[in-house]
Design brief:
Elements lengths: L1 H7 L2 H19 L16 H15 L5 H23 L7 H21 L4 H10 L1 H4 L4 E9 L5 H16 L5 H7 L8 E6 H8 L3 H6 L6 E6 L4 E10 L6 H29 L24
Antiparallel strand pairs: 1-2, 1-4, 3-4
Helix pairs in contact: 2-5, 5-12, 6-12
Length: about 300
């Protein structure tokens, strides 16, 4: 019983069902003059009229009156006649806009299959396990910093920074007094649980990696950045981790459905390319041949 249910849940099976349904709709709605029908028949059903009225109401925030509804139906009839006549004249052939629109509709079909396929908790757990890097949360650090310009000799600057550092660690100077001895900067004085990449975005590449190994609770420095030198007090560290499924379920499900869509698309083209003989002749090598199906194998 379980095996049968799992089989019915297979996205590829859904895809085949929808493809068969599309073929049936195409077969039953298209002009079939080749099957000895003497004339075209246009049927505008009550459901068609209800749909046109609904679209009017969505646009104008009110239902159409009788005269407006008749006008909408007449315009729809004109559109249908012009559409059929255009097909008879072959105006849909070699039209880039038409080709792209039809491709888009086919892609919508594949999208619908993936979006309507609901993954189980077991599937999402397995997916998260196999794609940890996509959902990994970076290490985070909270710290305070005092900034010093590199505008004097390196020895004197290092001596000055070390002096302030020792006084802060021995608590012989208040932080506000030490701040007045540092240089002003647009850089934030305190950072609360920022990721390493966020820290590098503000202080320059490589700054965050220097903080990762620092002990907490002590002023340490000088630490070099792209702007100058810093005294740093690391207050809190959160190591990188993989969140639980319950915390990021929607994100995992979106990624699962996206990869399902890509997989369905690949299987679809693998199947369709087998039905065509493809001959691509590159300008610089007109005798070469390449099958489009090769890229999907």
């Amino acid at each position: 019983m379980g095996t049968g249910i799992n089989f019915l849940r297979e996205p590829l099976l859904h895809f085949l069902f929808i493809g068969a349904a599309l073929f049936f709709v195409f077969y039953t709605t298209q002009d079939r003059s080749n099957f000895n029908q003497s004339k075209d028949i246009i049927v505008i059903s009550p459901s068609d009229i209800n749909r046109l009225a609904y679209l009017f109401e969505k646009t104008w925030q009110r239902p159409p009156n009788d005269q407006e509804l008749r006008g909408i139906v007449n315009e729809n009839l004109k559109e249908e006649v012009l559409y059929r006549e255009a097909l008879k004249l072959g105006l849909d052939k070699d039209d880039t806009v038409v080709r792209r629109r039809m491709r888009q509709k086919m892609e919508f079909i594949i999208d619908d299959i993936s979006e309507q396929t609901e993954p189980t908790n077991e599937q999402l757990e397995e997916f998260l396990k196999n794609h940890k890097d996509k959902f990994r949360v970076e290490s985070q650090i909270s710290f305070q910093q005092l900034f010093f310009k590199a505008d004097r000799g390196p020895d004197k600057l290092k001596e000055r920074i070390n002096d302030i550092k020792n006084k802060l660690n021995k608590e012989t100077i208040l932080l506000q007094d030490a701040e007045s001895l540092a240089n002003t900067t647009i850089l934030p004085r305190a950072i609360k649980l920022a990721t390493l990449s966020e820290i590098d975005n503000q202080f320059g590449r490589g700054f965050a990696s220097q903080l990762s190994d620092l002990d907490q609770g002590q002023w340490i420095g000088p630490i070099k950045s792209e702007f100058g030198f810093h005294l740093v007090l690391t207050e809190e560290k959160v190591e990188e981790y993989i969140p639980k499924l319950s915390e990021i379920r929607r994100a995992v499900e979106r990624e699962w459905q996206y990869l399902l869509k890509k997989d369905l698309e690949k299987k679809y083209f693998q199947d369709k390319f087998d039905q065509y003989t493809v001959d691509i002749r590159w300008p610089n090598d007109p005798d070469s041949k390449q099958s489009l199906a090769d890229k999907y194998k």
